[in-house]
Amino acid sequence: MRDLFIEKMYELSKKPYQKFFKKGKAWEVKVNQLIQLPNDSLGFHLGCFLLKYNFEIQPKLEDHDIIHVLTNTGISVVEEIGMQYYLFGNGKRSLYLIMVIVSGTLFYPTRFSYFKQQYKRGKTAHEFYGLDFLNMLSIPLTHIQQTFNIQ
């Protein structure tokens, strides 16, 4: 029940977040273009991630799925919250991130050790959340992970 509630909160907040808080242009990249990139590239892995979960590229939210790929984070509600803890540890600060962390901690207090672990993982990585990922799609995934110490 709480997973459903959190997912509904996300769906209701996604459009206003895209419109009012996300700056820049949406990527003009299609999934079929991503999977044509070299097999070891970030873009190819993003394309595979999107296909695996039957997702579409969300305009202005492309970085979110890139973070999933880079950090090898799943898509369950708890993993989504954990990814926000990871980003918090990596230095990202936003009202949306804080709202996810606070609500996630309140809804899933028994998972706090997991959230703390994700925060620590984010702390050990070099700051990467603000990179221009669109221009990095052809770079090998493992090269990016090693360069930024993404575990």
TrEMBL record:
Name the record gives this protein: Coenzyme Q (Ubiquinone) biosynthesis protein Coq4
Sequence intervals crossing the membrane: 95-114
Top-level division of the source organism's lineage: Bacteria
Swiss-Prot/TrEMBL keywords: Membrane, Transmembrane, Transmembrane helix
Protein's organism: Flavobacterium lacisediminis
Keyword Membrane attached: yes
